[in-house]
């Protein structure tokens, strides 16, 4: 079975818009787990535009499922991860000014750099995953770094699937077959949604975990809208 880790960056985006504590990120994480979520993912970025470094500490004692922290392993991020010791760290090569993650690692070019960080995280008992584009060369390279898992970067799949191009799954399926052969665990994420998740999961052998945030929170808003509008009308009667 594939585990669902809910990325709560977008909850922090809404909270930060008013400077207060609504919605309460910690309570949301508690409730997501209560509702069956099998993991919590956060992706603190250097400008703290959504998740703040302090959030990562506040979440630590309440995440009783799997705690996945994603980010570019610059010094401040790595210090944070080594102090918190989440279940998993996912290394993502984001530029500081990136709107969102937009590429996987070049695991061949950065093999030594990644290997060093991965071995330090593993020494500290943290499972490692590296964000990769779906090419066989990058999967081969990932295996050389010593990482426990890869996270397949699924934006292109999601885009093509929404256009009706189901063949876009093929490079992901081929990479999964290779990753399984090389002993790498397989995670996936970026723009996965209620529309595309079942097809993706059914076609990726050995898919261990998906992390989903942007679509899931948007869908939750939409699916909850009718209930909340009705509740306001009830109070205004
Ligand atoms: C690695 C990945 O695909 C997600 O973590 C994504 O980067 C979410 O980050 P934002 O919420 O900042 O877009
Ligand atoms: N690792 C991907 C993730 O955590 C969520 O990405 P998205 O669903 O917000 O695109």
From TrEMBL:
- Any Gene Ontology CC annotation: cytosol
Q: Would you kindly state one Gene Ontology biological process term found in this protein's UniProt entry?
A: pyridoxine biosynthetic process
Instruction: Name the residues that bind 1-deoxy-D-xylulose 5-phosphate.
Output: 45, 50, 100
- SUPFAM superfamilies per the record? Pyridoxine 5'-phosphate synthase
Main localisation: cytoplasm
- Site positions (Transition state stabilizer) are 151
Recorded metabolic or biological pathway in which this protein acts:
Cofactor biosynthesis; pyridoxine 5'-phosphate biosynthesis; pyridoxine 5'-phosphate from D-erythrose 4-phosphate: step 5/5
Keywords of this entry: Cytoplasm, Pyridoxine biosynthesis, Transferase
Q: Which family does it belong to?
A: Belongs to the PNP synthase family.
The name on file for this protein is Pyridoxine 5'-phosphate synthase
Gene of this entry = pdxJ
């Amino acid at each position: 079975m594939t585990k669902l880790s809910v990325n709560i960056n977008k909850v922090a985006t809404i909270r930060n818009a008013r400077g207060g504590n609504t919605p309460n990120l910690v309570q949301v994480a508690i409730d997501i787990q209560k509702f069956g979520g099998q993991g919590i993912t956060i992706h603190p970025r250097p400008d703290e535009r959504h998740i703040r470094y302090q959030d990562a500490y506040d979440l630590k004692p309440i995440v009783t499922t799997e705690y996945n922290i994603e980010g570019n392993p610059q010094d401040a991020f790595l210090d944070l991860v080594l102090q918190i010791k989440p279940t998993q760290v996912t290394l993502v090569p984001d530029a500081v000014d990136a709107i969102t993650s937009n590429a996987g690692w070049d695991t061949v070019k950065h093999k030594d750099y990644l290997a060093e960080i991965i071995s330090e995280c593993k020494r500290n008992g943290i499972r490692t995953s590296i964000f990769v584009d779906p090419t066989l060369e990058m999967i081969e390279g990932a295996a050389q770094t010593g990482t426990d898992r890869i996270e397949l970067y699924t934006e292109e799949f999601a885009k093509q699937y929404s256009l009706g191009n189901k063949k876009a799954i093929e490079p992901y399926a081929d990479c999964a077959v290779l990753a399984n052969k090389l002993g790498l665990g397989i995670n996936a994420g970026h723009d996965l949604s209620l529309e595309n998740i079942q097809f993706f999961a059914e076609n990726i052998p050995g898919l261990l975990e998906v992390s989903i945030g942007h679509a899931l929170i948007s869908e939750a808003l939409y699916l909850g809208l009718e209930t909340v509008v009705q509740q306001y009308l009830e109070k205004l009667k």
